[in-house]
Design goal:
By secondary structure, this protein is an alpha/beta fold. It has helices at about 10-25, 55-60, 80-85, 85-105, 140-155, 190-200, 220-230, 250-260, 285-295, 300-320; strands at about 5, 25-30, 45-50, 70, 110-115, 165-170, 175, 205, 210-215, 215, 235-240, 245-250, 270. It starts with a strand and ends with a helix. The mean pLDDT is about 95. Bound molecules: uridine-diphosphate-N-acetylglucosamine (UD1). Uridine-diphosphate-N-acetylglucosamine binds next to β7, α6 and β8.
Length: about 325
């Protein structure tokens, strides 16, 4: 049985990946410091280590047995926090990644998949954004994600390794779905707005709401990662994971309100200042993933949002009772 280590496997994206690996027959080890993740998200069949990628002892525990595959998702994922505490962002995203890479080299792990981000692109010159667009991040978070991505891919290019180390990076656009935190104000805008509506709190739109995002449902993201694992055409490559469709934040608000039978005439929606490092229009060109490993997103925004809202309502009701 192949053994896979998922860092950040108690979080939103990592726990879905860990689940899927178990279903595919992998033995899964999850390492997570629970800074934003929850132990309850970790699949029951996984070996769980509560620990930090910045702690070498914790990492040694995670790499104690043979490891065939590492999915490195653990990271500081908030743009706002990266400005508030740049050192922490740098440590977690860059040093943390270097630590995991170091262990992979020591243990001769042959396969590495990395959670990168569309924040690498900053203000792109072209929309939809192809992977060969220049990376010029405008947030500190984008800088550390880009740096970590380069560390991963450059490690795979090293000619002084005496074993094959194959890496792939996914520049994920705005991932949403079940288990995205409804409590964390620093995590994805869709979960924030859904939770606002359930709690009957005003919605705050930063800037004029005309900025747009490419929202991709978690199941499509998991599908991409899992199908890339054994596909040599993905080795050494960077892939956008998005839908190719853009939705403005204003449109998103209207859709979420409508799903609850509300509208702006009977629900408070406020406008506030633009946040630092905020990107304007983000939409992925996903033709490379289609061409190299035949991946395309399948779940429409309506379907994915419907599922997310149903899940969120369940959570909210459980929480209330
Ligand atoms: C998000 C992720 C980032 C990830 C990237 C790519 C978060 C916090 N950021 O960046 O980790 O790498 O996608 O997948 O999850 N907004 C409002 N009101 C709010 C909250 C947000 O108007 O209450 C606006 C923001 O200003 C922004 C847009 O909504 O323009 C999207 O914000 P957000 O979901 O926080 O993330 P991104 O910056 O797109």
């Amino acid at each position: 049985m192949k053994r896979a280590l998922v860092t950040g496997g108690a979080g939103f994206i990592g726990s879905h990946l860990a689940n899927s690996l178990i279903l595919k027959g992998y033995e899964v080890i999850v390492l997570d410091n629970e800074s934003t993740g929850f132990k309850e998200n970790v699949p029951v069949n996984a070996q769980y280590i509560k620990g930090d990628v910045l702690n070498l002892q914790d990492l040694s525990g995670a790499f104690a047995g043979p490891v065939d595959l590492v999915l490195h998702i653990a990271g500081q994922a908030s743009t706002i926090r990266s400005f508030r505490d740049p050192h922490d962002d740098l440590k977690t995203n860059v040093i943390g990644t270097l630590n995991v890479l170091k262990k992979c080299l020591e243990k001769r792990v042959p396969r590495f998949l990395f959670a990168s981000s569309m924040t690498c692109y900053g203000h792109p010159a072209q929309i939809p954004i192809p992977e060969d667009e220049q990376s010029r991040p405008i947030s500190y978070y984008g800088i550390t994600k880009h740096a970590a991505e380069r560390y991963v891919l450059s490690t795979a290019l090293r000619n002084d390794l005496d074993f094959d180390f194959h890496a792939t990076a996914f520049r994920m656009f705005n991932v949403y779905g079940e288990r995205q935190s409804l409590q964390n104000p620093y995590q994805g805008v869709m979960a924030i707005f859904i939770s606002n509506v359930f709690n009957n709190e005003p919605i705050t739109i930063h800037s004029d709401g005309e900025q747009s995002r490419d929202f991709i449902y978690i199941e499509d993201v998991v599908d991409a990662w899992i199908s890339a694992i054994d596909n040599p055409r993905t080795y050494g490559e960077v892939f956008n994971l998005g839908t190719g469709k853009g939705v403005s934040i204003n449109q998103l608000v209207d859709k979420i309100l409508l799903s609850d039978g509300k509208g702006r005439s009977n629900y408070p929606v406020r406008y506030s200042h633009e946040r630092p490092g905020d990107q304007r229009h983000m939409r992925a060109d996903v033709s490379k993933a289609k061409e190299l490993f035949d991946w395309s997103p399948r779940i429409s925004l309506e379907e994915g949002m419907g599922r997310t809202i149903r899940w969120a309502r369940d959570q909210w009701q459980k929480h209330k009772t």
